[in-house]
Amino acid sequence: MFIAQAIRDDFPIFKRKVNGYPLIYFDNAATTQKPRQVIDAEQDFYENHNANVHRAVHTLSQEATELHEGARETIGKFIGAKEPAEVVFVRGTTEAINLVAYSWGLRNLKAGDEVLISLMEHHSNIVPWEIISRLTGFTIKYANVNSDGTLDYKDFEGKFTKNTKLACLSQVSNVSGVINDVKRVAKVAHEHGALMLVDGAQSVPHMSIDVRDLDADFLAFSGHKMLGPTGIGVLYGKKALLEKMAPFEGGGEMIKEVSYSPQSEGCGISWNAPPWKFEAGTPNIAGGVGLAAAIKYLQRLGMADVFQHEKELTEYAVKKLQNCCTKLALYGTTNPALKCGIIPFGVEGLSSHDVALFLDNYGIMVRSGFHCAQPLHQIFKLQSSARASFYIYNTKEEIDRFIEVLKEMEQF
Ligand code: 7TS
Predict the structure, then answer these.
(1) What is the pLDDT of residue 54?
(2) Predicted TM-score of the model (pTM)
């Protein structure tokens, strides 16, 4: 098991103070900090190998292409993809889901079809489907979430019909940290002939994932939530599906051939093979290199230990929070067996932003608001919540300090 305190030296940002206090960063569900190894990998790319990929025969372009495609291979192995071609580089989870909505949904869904979505989804797994449904007329059915934030499996599974074409579910909620059994739901989806899209934004960074074991048709995740750079993320798709899908954006590199015909005064176009069919224009090459470095860092720690470390922190924090202040409320289930390292909470009489600002005065970063998941807040009967979310470098000592400051807040 790695020692959180020991790996903190890899993260330059922990040298700084915020408002005169050592930085305590509990906003990892929004984005994580970056280790020196990731920063160095990006810098090394720009200093030593920078060129565009797939375009030129010169040495630098060959090196850049090798690094870019090597990153794809590292990512594919990390999630258990059959081959690197199933890994499409995108900007992040949001773009990955939009890609599926526009490339697959817009062409394949029509009036009478149904898409099933849980009410705990981040807006990025709701809004693209609402946009496409307004264009093509398919129906969206929303599956209930229990008042403790756990998925109502009976409702979800009961809502499948012969018309269901797609089920959308996050593997971990970004608000409650609840872990969903996406493998179970994927099985039911497939029994009904529907596809399964898994939002892995909050799961891939924190646990061992095998897309073939889950039998996910699509998996979306973001590099910046797993030590990697911003602006790089992944859409995993089963190859047979990607092959049948239409392109997302048009431009360079996503075509095999564009030929102008003077007779018809138009261009005939044939598409490149996946994944390049979905990667129009110059990709975020340095971002991919940085994400591969992040994955290697996580693999060195071991994903089972990453999960265990966060579990221990969550159990520790929940126990302390339950007994620290009379005015503090924890939202959603606190059962550590059901969740990851995300704890939503509130303080009676204070808005979530007031809570976050008070903590910020002491160098403690938590998020406040509705975390792009308003339907789930409606279920919790809340306008907003404060949220502490942990990662590999967080320690029990930081949680102790967090509790101390919360106690001061209550006094105040
Ligand atoms: N899906 C989930 C479950 C998420 O938590 C997020 C981001 C996204 C999708 C979108 O990811 P992006 O990288 O494309 O922005 N969640 C959060 C959050 O909880 N606080 O800030 C961003």
Answers:
(1) 87
(2) 0.98
